[in-house]
């Protein structure tokens, strides 16, 4: 046990060093950064009341069964509805995206590539190819005790030529609340929007509007992707 906590501290110090080294301007936010770099060790290190309530309601409203989901299809964002589009995307990061945010986006890229339904390739792509830009932004809510916190933002933007769409998509994380937003579940959700998935009413879908910590695509999510890309 003693040995474990020593290793934990060592990893923590190393993580802090990396964060400071790559992002000297964020030193005042060090405490928050530490919280997010250790998220794998202590996932709920800095829970707000709002987030806690969401977590609790999320677990109590989980009534969906696998068989129900099997028949369901996660809805599709309007720019890609009824459209044919390429399954190949070129993705890149805005310069100011920090390493921890890049990592959760890369995890999300792997999640979607693993489906075999889309192919996300690093790079800028041409204007006639589908692309995704990963970005970060800051948005503070006025009253933290009574509002939902926006953890991310993402979606498709389609240039439609007859029935063919060229998708210039974006996926972003709200870095005002990094301990809640820099998560695989949030990145998978926002990338899902970018790829054309809309919100789902199923709590086990990655597209449920409130973060449930779900980063594994449900059968309904896969069905939604198939509808867009398996033509
Ligand atoms: Zn959403």
From TrEMBL:
Indicate whether Transmembrane helix appears among the record's keywords. Answer: no
- Which keywords appear in this protein's UniProt record, sorted alphabetically? Hydrolase, Metal-binding, Metalloprotease, Protease, Zinc
Q: Which InterPro entries match?
A: MetalloPept_cat_dom_sf (IPR024079), Pept_M10_metallopeptidase (IPR001818), Peptidase_Metallo (IPR006026)
Report the domain of life of the source organism. Answer: Bacteria
Mind listing the GO biological process terms from this record? proteolysis
Name all Peptidase metallopeptidase domain ranges.
81-231
SUPFAM superfamilies given for it? Answer: Metalloproteases ('zincins'), catalytic domain
Would the keyword Protease be found if you checked this record's keyword annotation? yes
Listed under GO cellular component are: extracellular matrix
Q: Which Gene Ontology terms cover its molecular function? A: metalloendopeptidase activity; zinc ion binding
Q: Cross-referenced Pfam families, in alphabetical order? A: Peptidase_M10
Q: Which PANTHER family match?
A: MATRIX METALLOPROTEINASE, MATRIX METALLOPROTEINASE-21
This chain's protein is named: Matrixin family metalloprotease
């Amino acid at each position: 046990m003693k040995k474990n906590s020593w290793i934990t501290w060592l990893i923590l110090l190393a993580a802090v060093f990396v964060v400071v080294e790559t992002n000297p301007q964020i030193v005042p936010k060090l405490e928050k950064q530490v919280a997010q770099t250790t998220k794998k060790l202590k996932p709920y290190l800095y829970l707000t009341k709002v987030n806690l309530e969401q977590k609790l309601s999320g677990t109590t409203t989980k009534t969906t069964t696998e068989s129900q989901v099997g028949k369901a299809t996660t809805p599709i964002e309007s720019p890609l509805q009824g459209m044919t589009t390429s399954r190949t995307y070129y993705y890149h990061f805005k310069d100011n995206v920090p390493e921890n945010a890049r990592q959760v986006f890369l995890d999300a890229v792997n999640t979607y590539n693993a489906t075999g339904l889309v192919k996300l390739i690093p790079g800028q792509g041409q204007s006639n190819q589908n692309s995704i830009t990963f970005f970060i932004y800051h948005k503070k809510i006025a009253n933290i005790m009574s509002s939902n916190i926006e953890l991310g933002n993402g979606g498709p933007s389609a240039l439609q030529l007859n029935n063919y769409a060229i998708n210039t998509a974006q996926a972003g994380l709200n870095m005002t609340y990094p301990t809640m937003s820099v998560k695989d579940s949030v990145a998978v959700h926002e990338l899902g929007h970018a790829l054309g998935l809309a919100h789902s009413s199923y709590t086990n879908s990655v597209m449920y509007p409130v973060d449930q910590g779900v980063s594994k695509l449900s059968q309904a999510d896969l069905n939604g992707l198939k509808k867009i890309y398996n033509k």
